[in-house]
Amino acid sequence: MISTSTVLTPLGQLALFADDHALFSICFPGTRKRQRPPARLAGDDHPLLCQAKAQLEEYFQGKRKTFDLLLCPQGTAFQQAVWTIIEQIPFGQTRTYGEIATLLGNNNKARAVGGAANKNPLPIVIPCHRVIGSSGSLTGFAGGLTIKRYLLNLEQRVAGQQ
């Protein structure tokens, strides 16, 4: 059974989706409906969704740097490999698409890394906003560059307070 809930953040209302086992999707405000999984049940009392909402609220309050949630992002083997590396980027830091491609063993796959990051179904939790262009520029982000900039600034501000 797929359950859904929302959490109000400084970015607007995020839609969260989970099944009985794991969180599998977070959608930014304005995400086209066709990209949203079909929800069958409101999940305001769903334990995984409650936990995800609480952790996202803590993140936006600057009280959480890592997430401890059961996740099940759906994607190809390559996408999964990219997302695993992205999950390891420390809070407040960035990596380039090229650096991730090199970690995957093929520095010519920077564009493919960008495509995989764009398909990340769990933004913020799998912090694809921490992936930037080789020149240090903010490039492509499924939530838009304004949101990417906000998330990076939030993390730099919080990291600077420590």
Write up what this structure looks like.
The chain has five helices and six strands. The protein is α/β, with parallel strands linked by helices and 162 residues long. The strands form two sheets. It has a four-stranded mixed beta sheet, with helices on one face. Strands 5-6 form a two-stranded parallel sheet. A hairpin with a 2-residue loop joins β1 (3-9) and β2 (12-18). α2 packs across α4 and α3 crosses α4 (110-118). The model has no long low-confidence stretch (mean pLDDT 89).
Blueprint (SSEs and pairs):
Blueprint: E1 3-9, E2 12-18, E3 23-27, E4 41-42, H1 47-60, H2 77-87, E5 95-96, H3 97-103, H4 110-118, E6 131-132, H5 145-161
Parallel strand pairs: 1-4, 5-6
Antiparallel strand pairs: 1-2, 2-3
Helix pairs in contact: 2-4, 3-4
Main sheet specs: 4 strands, mixed
Mean pLDDT: 89
Q: What is the H/E string?
A: EEEEHHEHHEH
The strand order across the widest sheet is: 3-2-1-4
Percent strand equals 15-25%
Key features of this structure:
15% strand, four-stranded mixed beta sheet, two-stranded parallel ribbon, single chain, 162 residues, 5 helices
